[in-house]
Every structure is written in C-alpha cells, then in structure tokens.
Sequence to fold (304 residues):
Amino acid sequence: MTNNLDTLATALYATTGDLLKERPDLAPWRPAVGIAPLLTDAELIILAMMQGMLGSTSEARWLRHARAHLRHLFPYLPQQSGYNKRLRKAAELLHRVTRILAASTSVWSDDVWIVDSTPVECGRSRETVKRSDLAGWAQYCYCASHSRFFWGLWLHLVCTLQGLPVAFALTGAKADERETLLDLLAAEPHLLAAQPGQTLIGDKNCFGRAFEHELTQHGVQLLRPTRKGERQRPGGPLFKSLRQVIESVNETFKGQLNLEQHQGRTPRGVIARVMQRILALTAAIWHNDHTGQSVKRSLTAYDH
Fold:
C-alpha cells in the first residue's frame, strides 16, 4: 500500500465511520428532529486531522485549500463559521477517537513511558493579554528549555518510546508538572490497571519524596536524572538518549504540525487546535503501524 495523506484519510474515515455506527454515543449531541448535517462527523474528523497534519493554522485558508484540492474526499465543505462551530463542539470526539486509535496500535502496550511538558504560547502583546478570552487560564511563565518568558499554557504529554501520545493535559503556565501528572493518572486509572508495572522517565523537575511515593503507590517506577547534591540515581547514562525522544516529539508538534502558531483565541478554540495535532500524530503512528512501516512516528509521507 502506498503511504500518503489520501490513503491515511481513507483508512481513518472507514475506521471512524464504523466506530460511530457502533458507538453513536461518541458523537456530539444534536436534536433528534432537525436537519442532518451535510458534513458527517466522520468527515469532520478527517478534515480536522488533515488540517492538523498539514500544519494549517487558518481555518478560512484551509477550507479554500480543501475546496481546490480535496473535493474528491469531501463532496460538501462548510463555510468557515460552520466548520469553526462544529470543530469546537467535537473536541471530546477528537479525544475519544485519538484514544481508540492509540489503543489499537502495537506500541500501546509499551511498558516505558516518557513525560514532559512544552509551552503553548497564546499571545505576545500586552493588549492581547488584557482582552483575551484566555485570561485567567493562560499565564506568564518562564520556559527554561527555550530561555524565554511567554504568556500561555503548558501541554503536558505522556507518550511511549515510539512517540505515541498516551495521556495529555493543557494547564495554566504556572501549574506544577508533578501535580498535573498525578492528576492525569488519577483521572484515568484504567491506564495503569491495564498495564501494571510501568516505568516512567521524567526530567529533573520530577522530584520529591511524596511525589515518588505516590507514583510507587500507583505501581509506577520513576527514572529521572540526578539533581545537584543528590546521591547518584540508577540509569543515569541512559537518560540522554531516551530524553531526546520526548524532545523530538515536542519538536514534531511545533515544527511539522505548527503547534506554536495555533491561533486559538478562546479556551475551546485552543483545545480544538491542540487536539487536531495530537490526533494527526496519533493517526500517523496508527497508520504506519498497521501498514508495517519501520519508523512509526514519521509524518514525511503525509505532511505535503
């Protein structure tokens, strides 16, 4: 099978269509009586995934591109305002489809996870900060890895060594990474129940006796670099290469999927933009896995 964006879209459409027939409860609620949407929920998922895969940050420009080049896949395309409303209401559907795709891959059962967070900038000017609907959620913070201050959110990501997203959260920029991780594990206890004995690789910020004790209570073994003044921790020589995995995953989001230029202006808008990119990465890994590709987290065949 030739790997390209059309084959990925076709495979995902067939899978999503069958899933929504079996699980109609996954779709966004709409009145029983009324006009059925001309763009189905399955087609909306594909359209959103393709926008994220191609790194398009403008919905109006994306729909113009789709009308010119994707009519063979989408007989009907909505106007920008209709697409905007449908996409934001479908954020939970995007999340559920992403999880189902991830769980159907061979790398889902990996017993090693890597955790990290990356900034999601939401504004630069003082006037934007004062007028933004994101005020109160987005915050000023300093990102040490990029050596810069920013106003926005943190995307906290737990992934496998193949780069497959397992769990994720968007928080204010000043949220504690350790508390967010514990909240993620508490919110989805089935993740660890289905895969006991996980090893979690974190950075130097994943420290604290109480934090490590709580992870142990969850059955998770934490590996992290030794902090200054600490006794040497086990596995130190392995961290440099393994930590590079999560850094490269973040670079995929920001370099190929244009997460930095998401252009979300409201909480629901930012969530939908981030979910599009997580879905795009998951769909690529899912398709590469099912077509027997040696490199699972490769977007080269799909990003043009």
Summary: The domain at 111-262 is CATH 3.30.420 (Nucleotidyltransferase; domain 5). The chain has a mean pLDDT of 90. The first strand starts at residue 112 and ends at 123. Residues 267-290 form the longest helix (24 residues).
